[in-house]
C-alpha cells in the first residue's frame, strides 16, 4: 500500500547562465516526489520544468501544490504495485498536469522495479543498450565562450553533439553565431539548433535556409507550438530535419503531427508526454510513421534524467541521440554516486529501479523551506 507521498522543491544553481529564447536560467528548481510504501520500499520521481511559466503551464510550485492537495489524497492507501490502476484514477480525476503525473508514475515504477529486483527499463519492455549518446547545449550566447566550451567537452570525451539555443537575437545574428561555431568545430561533430518557438514562419524560412547551407544537422521547434501547419510546411520545404518539441504533448499530439507530416523528428520527453508509458506511446507512433527519435530533457536533475534513460534505452532506434545532460548543468549533485558520463555517453546503472541512491543530507540542505 502507498503509505505517504512527499513533494520536495530543491533550488540548485547552474554552472553558468543558460539562455533560452524565453528565459535565462541561473537556478534550476528540482521537483522531486518520494512515495513510501507499507513494505518499506520507496520510489522517486521528478517533475522539473524549464523557466517556470514562461515555458509551459506548470511551475514547480503548482506541481507541488497539485500533488499535495489533489493527487496524493486520492491514491494514498491504494496498492502500490497496481501502477496502471493508480494512474487511471489520476487521469480520470485530474486534467492536464502532465509533469506532476510523470513524477508520480516514475516513483511508482521505481518502487515496483525495486520490489521485483529489476532495473526500471525491464518494466518498459527491456533495454537494448547500456549507454546513450548525449548532446551538450551551448547556451551562453557568446560565440567565443561557446567554442571554448565545446572544445573542452571534446577534449574530455564527454560530448560530440552540440545544440545551440538561439532566438533571442535577430535571425541574421543568430545564424552568424551558429555558423561561426560550426566552422570552428568542423565536420567531426554534430551541431544542431533549438529556436524554442522564437521565429515567425518567414523568419524560419530565411534562417533555416542559411543554417542548412552551413551544414547544421537539425532544427528544433523553429515556430510556435500553436502553428503545426507552419511546421509541416517547413518540414516539406527543407532537407535538414525539423524536430518537434514544445508542440509535442503526448500521444494525441504525436498522432496529429505524424498524420500531417509536421516534423521529421520527435523530441521525446517523459514529463512533457505525461509519464514514461505515454512517452513510450509517442515513440511507437513515431516509429510506425517513419519519424526519427531524439531523447529530450526538461533539464531535470539525476532522477528525471535516469528515468528518461531507462525508457530511451528500450527504443529500437534513437537516430539523433539524447540530451540527457541536465545533472551536468548543476553545481550540486544530489546522488551518493553521480551518474556516469564517459566516452560521449551516459552509462545506465544496472541496479533495481532507477538504479540510483539520493544523498539525503545534501538534499536536505538544498531543499526549499
Strand content of the residues, in percent?
15-25%
Separation, N- and C-terminal Cα atoms? 28 Å
Judged by helices, strands and strand pairing, the structural class is alpha/beta
Order of helices and strands: EEEHHHEEHEHEHEHEHEHHEHEEH
- Total helix count? 12
The CATH architecture assignment of the largest domain turns out to be: Alpha-Beta Barrel
Say how many strands there are: 13
Largest sheet: 7 strands, parallel
Top CATH class of the largest domain: Alpha Beta
Which blocks of ≥5 consecutive residues have pLDDT under 50?
none
What overall form do the CA principal axes indicate? globular
Strand arrangement, major sheet: 5-6-7-8-9-10-11
Q: Can you give a write-up of this model?
A:
The protein is of the alpha/beta class and 369 residues long. 38% of the residues lie in helices and 20% in strands. The strands form three sheets. A seven-stranded parallel sheet has the order 5-6-7-8-9-10-11. The chain is globular. The two termini are 28 Å apart.
Short characterization:
The chain is 38% helix and 20% strand. By secondary structure, it is of the alpha/beta class. The model has no long low-confidence stretch (mean pLDDT 95).
